[in-house]
């Protein structure tokens, strides 16, 4: 299944880039925009997989956000 979330990027005072995913309420940062993008995608992937593995409802975006859309695919294994 594919999940898509908006990521909002902002430059930090230290010269890096922060990445915030409002629908999941999580953030991360990287030394550059590209690093922050990669970190955000990994964070989204981990968060969604955790929700799925623990049987919790995966949050969906209910509001419109200005930012970059990031999609991840999660494979659910039934045992």
UniProtKB/TrEMBL annotation:
SUPFAM superfamilies the UniProt entry points to: TTHA1013/TTHA0281-like
Phylogenetic placement of the source organism: Bacteria, Candidatus Fraseribacteriota
Protein's recorded name: HicB-like antitoxin of toxin-antitoxin system domain-containing protein
Native species: Fraserbacteria sp. (strain RBG_16_55_9)
InterPro entries (alphabetical): TTHA1013/TTHA0281-like (IPR035069)
Matching Gene3D superfamilies: 3.30.160.250
